[in-house]
């Protein structure tokens, strides 16, 4: 059985491939690309059907961050001409969120620049969440405020947050190359705090920062181990005025391979195409929908996305449908695991108990892959799985042909929506 048959069969069973198999996906050639997308598409349809979850970003506080993340337009010393403003008022943030929900978003992501929130900041976000949920009680809220201190995740959970986003971004071994003001371990700690408080963990990566294939595979397996329910895959937006401004080393083909690898390692987890979708996938965006089951609607934190209507048209034209507020995103066994983790309140990585000892009835699946894999076998498919295609031979390939080529024409700073008087594009 060749690589793609193996990966498809494992994905349909909810099993994780080996590290070598994940690396082999990244080494496929352009001739094999459509076969890779088709294989990942079968896995995606098995667990998520043809649904696309829409998420909407509200940047509560923009720029002026004291941290030095090299990829970030809001970093210390950034010369990127982005919007800079301090905390939006609750009604301003709720108004921005409403635009996203009206456009079809079922999750609103409340983000603030900075190392981490103060307790006063948690109060602010609590008020904002109340204003959003007053207008639309069904909307999911994910909060992204940086590194969390003790009890802050619990406060956010009690205030109605559904999820917390904190990305690992890159592998542990290269983390020090992109940030010096905090560590990979700090990031893992915050994801664990969020998960331990019963928040759904949203944690992902950034590709295109000069990392190796091994780095990408390392971080994706680390995210799997952490029990992330949602994995945003960002493609670096090389903002002028940041240290990575010249890191134009992604192609649409490379992005699709990365998405496919992430999908095979996370067959039943939400995989989201995040920042850089328009910049790097460009006209290949619809193929990304065959692999990922989630995207952002409209603009990003500090850069413009394509118009929200263009996102909706793309989804429809590609034969997919927007996931409704009443539809569960995760397959039932994954949702049960998340609920169990919430009920027992145990941090994913620190829970060493067997499922039966947890007392939650569902098992602490995020502690490792096995509980989830066993559950996956008995899960009814979201749609019937189709037969595996065969694939041709695999050789190494390099499609990162645009390295060093400046495409700053593709990066547009966001000057509308949250923090401005202008309407958002959702
Ligand atoms: S990623 Fe977050 S912590 Fe890092 S510089 Fe940007 S806003 Fe600050």
TrEMBL record:
<dbReference type="Pfam" id="PF04055">
    <property type="entry name" value="Radical_SAM"/>
</dbReference>
<dbReference type="InterPro" id="IPR007197">
    <property type="entry name" value="rSAM"/>
</dbReference>
<comment type="function">
    <text>Catalyzes the conversion of dethiobiotin (DTB) to biotin by the insertion of a sulfur atom into dethiobiotin via a radical-based mechanism.</text>
</comment>
<keyword id="KW-0949">S-adenosyl-L-methionine</keyword>
<feature type="binding site">
    <location>
        <position position="202"/>
    </location>
    <ligand>
        <name>[2Fe-2S] cluster</name>
    </ligand>
</feature>
<dbReference type="GO" id="GO:0005506">
    <property type="term" value="F:iron ion binding"/>
</dbReference>
<keyword id="KW-0004">4Fe-4S</keyword>
<dbReference type="GO" id="GO:0009102">
    <property type="term" value="P:biotin biosynthetic process"/>
</dbReference>
<keyword id="KW-0093">Biotin biosynthesis</keyword>
<dbReference type="GO" id="GO:0051539">
    <property type="term" value="F:4 iron, 4 sulfur cluster binding"/>
</dbReference>
<feature type="binding site">
    <location>
        <position position="72"/>
    </location>
    <ligand>
        <name>[4Fe-4S] cluster</name>
    </ligand>
</feature>
<keyword id="KW-0001">2Fe-2S</keyword>
<feature type="binding site">
    <location>
        <position position="69"/>
    </location>
    <ligand>
        <name>[4Fe-4S] cluster</name>
    </ligand>
</feature>
<dbReference type="InterPro" id="IPR006638">
    <property type="entry name" value="Elp3/MiaA/NifB-like_rSAM"/>
</dbReference>
<keyword id="KW-0408">Iron</keyword>
<dbReference type="InterPro" id="IPR058240">
    <property type="entry name" value="rSAM_sf"/>
</dbReference>
<dbReference type="InterPro" id="IPR010722">
    <property type="entry name" value="BATS_dom"/>
</dbReference>
<dbReference type="InterPro" id="IPR013785">
    <property type="entry name" value="Aldolase_TIM"/>
</dbReference>
<comment type="similarity">
    <text>Belongs to the radical SAM superfamily. Biotin synthase family.</text>
</comment>
<feature type="binding site">
    <location>
        <position position="109"/>
    </location>
    <ligand>
        <name>[2Fe-2S] cluster</name>
    </ligand>
</feature>
<feature type="domain" description="Radical SAM core">
    <location>
        <begin position="47"/>
        <end position="277"/>
    </location>
</feature>
<dbReference type="Pfam" id="PF06968">
    <property type="entry name" value="BATS"/>
</dbReference>
<keyword id="KW-0808">Transferase</keyword>
<protein>
    <recommendedName>
        <fullName>Biotin synthase</fullName>
        <ecNumber>2.8.1.6</ecNumber>
    </recommendedName>
</protein>
<feature type="binding site">
    <location>
        <position position="65"/>
    </location>
    <ligand>
        <name>[4Fe-4S] cluster</name>
    </ligand>
</feature>
<feature type="binding site">
    <location>
        <position position="142"/>
    </location>
    <ligand>
        <name>[2Fe-2S] cluster</name>
    </ligand>
</feature>
<keyword id="KW-0479">Metal-binding</keyword>
<dbReference type="GO" id="GO:0004076">
    <property type="term" value="F:biotin synthase activity"/>
</dbReference>
<feature type="region of interest" description="Disordered">
    <location>
        <begin position="378"/>
        <end position="404"/>
    </location>
</feature>
<feature type="binding site">
    <location>
        <position position="272"/>
    </location>
    <ligand>
        <name>[2Fe-2S] cluster</name>
    </ligand>
</feature>
<dbReference type="GO" id="GO:0051537">
    <property type="term" value="F:2 iron, 2 sulfur cluster binding"/>
</dbReference>
<comment type="subunit">
    <text>Homodimer.</text>
</comment>
<dbReference type="InterPro" id="IPR002684">
    <property type="entry name" value="Biotin_synth/BioAB"/>
</dbReference>
<comment type="pathway">
    <text>Cofactor biosynthesis; biotin biosynthesis; biotin from 7,8-diaminononanoate: step 2/2.</text>
</comment>
<keyword id="KW-0411">Iron-sulfur</keyword>
